[in-house]
Each structure stands twice: as C-alpha cells, then as structure tokens.
UniProtKB/TrEMBL annotation:
This is HAD-IIB family hydrolase. It holds the Pfam family Hydrolase_3. The keyword Metal-binding applies. One of its GO terms (cellular component) is cytosol. InterPro entries: HAD-like_sf, HAD-SF-IIB-MPGP, HAD-SF_hydro_IIB, HAD_sf. One of its GO terms (biological process) is mannosylglycerate biosynthetic process. Keywords: Hydrolase, Magnesium, Metal-binding. GO terms for molecular function: magnesium ion binding; mannosyl-3-phosphoglycerate phosphatase activity. It comes from the Bacteria.
Amino acid sequence: MNQKAGILEKDYIIATDLDGTLLDHHTYRFNKAMPALEYCDNAQVPIIFNTSKTFAETERLCKTLNNNHPFIIENGSALYVPKHYFARELEVNIPRFDAGAYWLYKFGLNRSEILSRLTTFKAQHTYQYWGFNSMSNRDLCRVTGLSLEQAASAQERQFSEPLLWQDKVEKLAAFVKHLQLFGLNVIKGGRFVHVLGQSNKAKPLTFLKEMYELNSDNQQTLIALGDSDNDKDMLNCADIAIVIASPVHENPIIEQHPHLIRSRYQGPDGWNDSILTLLQDNA
C-alpha cells in the first residue's frame, strides 16, 4: 500500500468524543454521521470512543454501531480492549484486570475513593453543586433528557463523579484548585463538571496508539474529534485535531497545534463532513 508523505498517511486511528461531537447534544442521535461511519468501517479505520460516559453506555453504543474496537470511558479513567484484539501487548505498569470480554486498563481512581474524598471536602467548603451520587434516575432524566434506562446506565459510574455546578461560574477555578489538594482532577464537560483521579482523555489514548503501532508495520496517524474543554488533552495529543462546533458553548481553546481543523457544522453534521473531507481528499 502506497503512503503519502507528511502527516496524512494510509493508517489512521480515529478517537472521538460522543456527546456533542458524534452524538447530537440535544437528541443524542448519530444518524447524520452515518456516511462517515460507514466509510471508516469500509476503509478499516478503527473508531475509538473516548468519552465521559460509563462502560454500560459506551458498550451499548458500540454494539449498536457494530464497533468492535477498544474504547475509553469516564474521561480517560479506564481503557477497555477486547480480548484477542491485539496479538502483542505493551509491557507497562498500568493495572490490568480481567473484565469478561475485555481487558480493563485502569488509569483513574475508584469512584468510592472519589466520593470519600468529596465527602471530606464538602465538610470543609461551601461550594454549591449536585453530584450524580445524590441524584435519582428521574433527577438525571430531567437534567439531561435521557430516558430512564439511559439514566440508569449513566449512573453506573466506576471511576468518576459528575457534578452539576450550581455555584457562581467565577468560583469554579478555586473549586478546582481546592480539589487538587485532595488528589482529585476536575474536567469540565459539555453539561457537567467531572471529578476523577489524575487521569485525562490523552493518557489511555497515547497508550492505545502505542499498542496499535506495536501490532502494525506502519506508523499510525491519530485523528481526534471533540467539542468541549474535557477534550483538550485528547485533541492536543493527536496528530490531527478536529474541533467540532457546539450549539451550546464556546469551542475549547487549542493553541499551536500543527494540524488543527475546525468543523463547518455542529455535532454529528460536523463530524461527518470533517471526516469525509479529510479521509476522501487524502485517499
């Protein structure tokens, strides 16, 4: 297979955020991205979901789209790799667990530890927020527009605690600094503020890219797509970063990226247009 010189080569990996990027921010539908999804499937380009969603939510979408590739959940807290997906694996100190049909690589803290630290934190501070742990499934439905079944899956957190920020916007920076003293990281998503361990969307993705390269004779070109601040690390670590326009918030600020693309359209429309334009023009 001939390869083009420069950044655009024949072997691609696509890593994508879900809500507001591949999925419509309001309806959670992906149908407008189907032409590009089918193009990638036919071209054997793996699509890696890199999301704030839970394992249950992400695996369900994988099955819906017949996507049998690895995926990253809860803002980089864990990577799930289907067993027998890679013939060779990297020798690293990342904790790995048997998770049925998958190998689970753990990059974050357990939710129980996060909740314990948040309880201690809340006793010392007066910030106003509403955590998933305090919400019923019906509460979550009202906040997000999810169905009851979808809300139940969203509640199955393993490595993070999303918060609905109810305080003044200008207090958020101080909140982040104070939580860092408790060994917790805070990442702002499209709807929620996510509290997790010292992980982000880039760490497992960089590891996964190395796994692909270990199992290939070719260097991989990583394309990442996202629309929110919690996607910045993922976008910055990619060879090609695509910022998807959002109907509800400003785009994340990406500085000095050598191959930065901004979508012409929002959500899955932008996803579809950006991927088809990029891959078809360089086929």
